[in-house]
Structures are given as C-alpha cells and as structure tokens.
C-alpha cells in the first residue's frame, strides 16, 4: 500500500486512535492535516510527522461548528493544494443511563460524533467533487454501534448513526469516485491522556468475549484505516470493518 502524493485530514488526530492513524498515513506516504479541538496537541503530532520527512500541518477545530469545519478545509487546500482522504475520528464517549442522563450530554455526543461526521464529510466531499478526482472518506464507528450495552444509549446511538451515514454516503458519492467506509474498533487501549482507560473489571469482561483474547491496539485500527484509504481497497465502498478480534462475530459465553 502506498499513499504517496495523497493528502489526508484526520480529525481527532491529537491523541489516541486519531494520532495513530495520522502517523500511519504519514508512514504510508501521505501528507497530513492533523485537526483537533486541542490545537497545541495536534501541532505536536504534526511535528512528529514532519520529523518523518512528510509534510504536515495542524488545525484547531470544533467539528460540530460548520464555520470551523469550513475553515479547516480551506486551510488544508491552502497548505497542500487538495484533499484526497478524510478520516472522521473526532468523537466523545462516556456513560450515562437513560434515567439520569442530562439533555446537554445527549446533545454533546450527537453534536460531535454524528453532526461532526456530517459537517466534515459534506465540506470535504464538496471539495473532492469540485476537484473531480475522487477521494476516500473513512468514518470511525464502534462495536457499540451494533452491540448495545447499558449506559451507552447516547454513544451507541451516535455510532449506529455513523454506520448508516457511511452507507448512504457510499451510495450518493460513488458516482463521483468517492469511496466511503467505516472502521469499528472494539475495546482498544489507546494510552490517551484525554480518555481514561476502561476499568480493569470492564476490560476483563470485554476481553472474555474476544476470541483472540486481547484488547485492540491503536496500530490495529490504523492499519485498517490505511488499507481502506489505499488503492488496494479501490472497489470497497459502503462497508464497515469491525476491528475487534472477533468480538462482534458472536458470543463466546453461549455454546451448545
């Protein structure tokens, strides 16, 4: 796989999965705009990419703000001339059951996770269509989008929405040579300073349902994104690849 000559935007690129994805795309030859609400942290990742000999820039963005998203797209075109790849990784997570949930929490999750995907995809797709050379959009969903769990009604709903959003965009944008797919991580230990790791109890329970017997690593997710962004995946469109060690295949606890 090679991404030589390609330019990518990675939202949520300052930490965790986004950081791993940005670095992997750069390793495969892409120039990268690292976009994140934490602008100074995004610049640290951009500097790491530049140290690899690739071009990189950073941009502070709230993906739920259409004006900020438009400015991010303009800044990317000004810096690199074009956009070939968009990775929608920016997101928020958390736990709150229905009876205790604040309306503001629901709104925040939907604004960042789902509306953010819409705004970024729309702005970048318009740029790709105008350029006329196609492109790739990879959305980051989650096993939570197809496997419900208590306390995650907002998060799971937003990630399920991303799955259907991905499929609809694949139908709409395929005629323009734009492929849209999604990657759904299972429990992945990112080591992110801004997202606490799951409790030991949760990790043990989750891994107990993973046939491969381990949690995911950021490199696992980044590899899947890099594949979908590459020409090796040139006929893959509208698909969701769950990178979860087999968790979503079924339930190990049920046998017969």
Give the SSE layout:
Elements: E1 7-11, H1 16-27, E2 31-36, H2 39-50, E3 56-60, H3 66-80, E4 85-88, H4 103-131, E5 135-140, H5 153-173, E6 178-185, H6 200-207, H7 218-229, E7 240-243
Parallel strand pairs: 1-2, 1-4, 2-3, 4-5, 5-6, 6-7
Helix pairs in contact: 1-2, 1-7, 3-4, 4-5
Give a brief rundown of this model.
This protein is 43% helix and 15% strand. With 256 residues, the chain is an alpha/beta fold.
Description:
The protein is of the alpha/beta class and 256 residues long. It has one domain: 3-Layer(aba) Sandwich (Rossmann fold), CATH 3.40.50.720. It contains 7 helices and 7 strands. It has helices spanning 16-27, 39-50, 66-80, 103-131, 153-173, 200-207, 218-229; strands at residues 7-11, 31-36, 56-60, 85-88, 135-140, 178-185, 240-243. A 7-stranded parallel beta sheet has the order 3-2-1-4-5-6-7, with helices on both faces. Helix 3 (66-80) packs parallel to helix 4 and helix 4 runs parallel beside helix 5. The longest helix has 29 residues, at 103-131. It is globular, with a radius of gyration of 17 Å. The mean pLDDT is 95.
What would the principal axes of the Cα set say about the shape? Answer: globular
- Low-pLDDT runs of 5+ residues are none
Order of helices and strands: EHEHEHEHEHEHHE
Q: Which structural class should the secondary elements be placed in?
A: alpha/beta
Q: What spatial order of strands do you see in the largest sheet? A: 3-2-1-4-5-6-7
Number of strands: 7
- Number of helical runs? 7
Tell me the strand percentage band: 5-15%
Count up the domains: 1
At the fold tier of CATH, the topology name is: Rossmann fold
* Cα gyration radius (Å): 17 Å
| Helical proportion, percent range | 40-55%
Roughly how many Å apart are the termini? 42 Å
The largest pleated sheet is described as: 7 strands, parallel
The CATH superfamily is identified as NAD(P)-binding Rossmann-like Domain
């Amino acid at each position: 796989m090679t991404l030589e000559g390609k330019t990518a935007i990675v939202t949520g690129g300052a930490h965790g999965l986004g950081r791993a994805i940005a670095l992997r795309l750069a390793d495969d030859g892409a120039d990268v705009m690292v976009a994140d609400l934490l602008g100074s942290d995004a610049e640290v990742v951009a500097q790491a990419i530049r140290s690899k000999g690739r071009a990189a820039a950073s941009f502070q963005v709230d993906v739920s703000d259409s004006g900020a998203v438009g400015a991010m797209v303009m800044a990317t075109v000004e810096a690199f001339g074009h956009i070939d790849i968009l990775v929608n990784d920016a997101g928020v997570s958390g736990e709150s059951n229905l009876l205790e949930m604040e309306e503001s929490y629901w709104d925040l999750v939907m604004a960042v996770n789902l509306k953010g995907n819409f705004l970024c995809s729309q702005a970048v797709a318009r740029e790709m269509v105008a350029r006329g050379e196609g492109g790739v959009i990879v959305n980051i969903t989650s096993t939570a989008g197809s496997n419900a769990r208590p306390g995650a009604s907002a998060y799971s709903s937003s990630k399920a929405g991303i799955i259907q959003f991905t499929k609809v965009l694949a139908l709409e944008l395929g005629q323009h040579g734009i492929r849209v797919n999604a990657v759904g991580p299972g429990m992945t230990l990112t080591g992110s300073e801004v997202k606490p790791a799951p409790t030991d109890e949760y990790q043990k329970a989750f891994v107990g349902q993973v046939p491969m017997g381990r949690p995911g690593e950021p490199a696992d997710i980044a590899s899947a994104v890099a594949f979908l962004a590459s020409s090796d995946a040139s006929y893959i469109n509208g698909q969701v690849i769950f990178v979860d060690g087999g968790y979503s295949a079924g339930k190990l606890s049920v046998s017969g």
